[in-house]
Amino acid sequence: xxxxxxxxxxxSFAKAYPHAFKMLEKIRRDTPATIQSYKKxxxxxxxxxxxxxxxxxxxx
Length: 60
Description:
Blueprint: H1 3-16, H2 18-59
């Protein structure tokens, strides 16, 4: 689908289902930031886990 037809389809969808369109647009805008925050949290937890393992190995 070319860009012109895509925009026409999106406009038609927005006119037919305005509430659903607003919800989907909000999800589309927020998804990259949500993924980035989960990624940062995951990387931080990996670092914390690595530190805990080092402390345990020093005790043994």
